[in-house]
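User: I've been trying to design a sequence by hand for this structure and keep getting stuck. Would you show me what you'd pick, starting by listing the structure so we're on the same page?

Assistant: Good idea, let's start from the same input. This is the structure you sent:
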């Protein structure tokens, strides 16, 4: 095994986790690494490492611990018990859910995040209840907390059902809107978070969509009509960015928003060519596209940030450009127009009808 590669990958994943936590509002006061041949199934970390963390918490006054590895409910409970109940223990998925909750602006976005958080909580409750019922089984009675857990679970399920009903109303409205602009083909911008999708939308359309050097600046979809040449117009759809291992609850909750992607005539995959790990990011995006059932859609690659990329050569596929300096945008418009005219009327006729999923 190439441990050098592993270390680089680990450093990248840690840096990304820190960026996610910071964007969710956290201050990072320290980091710790444990190298183990295998993960402890009950606490994730070895007991020596846990007491090291407890010391670091005392010293820094931290009130939360974030793990890069996914935490099972049982592991999280054990860690919280050992570190003290006022220390929140969470994994990367929870950080991403928090970040989405902090950034959601529209009522639809907020509803979607709440559904994702509830689903996540329900999954964690099930784990906790398993532990309790095992305890209960041991002494021949039902676990003392079990009834409450069942009630909690029921309450969560009811709330999810209610929220999903509200969301389906919003989704229907969105569907109507889509139908009303069915004569203009839609190009969906997809890409890893922070790749420059919103910047490219702004550069192509003159819009002033929020752009920031932070993950998940965009959560709610934005649509802008752009002129590609004197005959061809398209609607550009800017949506939420992807990351590797996007929590499955989030993908499910954002399915309606991501319908723009599934429904689009053409995908424009924006890759940050200045990022040394663009290849890994590209694969993560392609994995989410497959997860959404959009893996076979016509796709053009926009190699963005070439102003900041050293020695960049795009090769044959895609267009090298910079949303910042405007380099390559003339070529991009021409390539998009050509792709749409090649599709002919099919480019406009790909809208799904209501009821079809
Ligand atoms: N140097 C350089 N920076 C760029 C370019 N395009 C975008 N950026 C910067 O990259 C950062 C992210 O840009 P956004 O447009 O917000 O990226 P996004 O893909 O929409 O990101 P999310 O919505 O957070 O997923 C910002 O700091 C931009 O200023 C470019 O062509 N060159
Ligand atoms: Mg954006």
């Amino acid at each position: 095994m190439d441990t050098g590669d592993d270390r680089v990958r680990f450093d990248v994943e840690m840096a990304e986790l820190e960026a996610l936590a910071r964007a969710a509002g956290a201050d990072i006061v320290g980091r710790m690494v444990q190298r183990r041949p295998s993960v402890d199934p009950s606490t994730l970390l070895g007991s020596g490492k846990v007491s090291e963390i407890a010391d670091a918490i005392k010293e820094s006054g931290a009130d939360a611990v974030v793990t890069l590895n996914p935490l099972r409910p049982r592991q999280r409970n054990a860690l919280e018990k050992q570190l003290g109940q006022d220390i929140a223990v969470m994994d990367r998925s929870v950080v991403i859910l928090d970040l989405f909750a902090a950034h959601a602006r529209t009522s639809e976005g907020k509803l979607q995040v709440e559904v994702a958080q509830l689903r996540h909580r329900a999954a964690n409750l099930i784990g906790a209840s398993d532990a309790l019922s095992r305890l209960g089984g041991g002494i021949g009675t039902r676990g003392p907390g079990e009834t409450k857990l069942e009630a909690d679970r029921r309450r969560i399920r009811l709330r999810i059902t209610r929220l999903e009903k509200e969301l389906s109303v919003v989704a229907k409205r969105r569907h109507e809107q889509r139908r009303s602009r069915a004569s203009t083909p839609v190009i969906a911008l997809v890409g890893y978070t922070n790749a420059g999708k919103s910047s490219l939308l702004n550069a192509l359309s003159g819009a002033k969509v929020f752009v920031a050097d932070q993950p998940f600046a965009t959560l709610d979809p934005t649509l802008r009509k752009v002129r590609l040449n004197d005959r061809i117009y398209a609607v550009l759809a800017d949506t939420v960015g992807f990351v590797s291992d996007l929590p499955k609850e989030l993908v499910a909750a954002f399915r309606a928003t991501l319908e723009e992607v599934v429904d689009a005539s053409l995908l424009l995959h924006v890759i940050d060519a200045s990022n040394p790990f663009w290849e890994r990011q590209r694969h993560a995006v392609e994995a989410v596209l497959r997860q959404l059932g959009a893996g076979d859609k016509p796709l053009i690659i926009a190699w963005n940030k070439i102003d900041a990329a050293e020695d960049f050569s795009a090769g044959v596929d895609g267009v090298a450009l910079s949303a910042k300096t405007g380099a390559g945008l003339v070529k991009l418009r021409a390539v998009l127009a050509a792709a749409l005219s090649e599709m002919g009327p099919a480019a406009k006729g790909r809208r799904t009808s209501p009821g079809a999923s």
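That's my pick for every position. To get oriented when you compare it with your attempt: The mean pLDDT is 84. The chain has three domains: 3-98, 104-165, 184-347.
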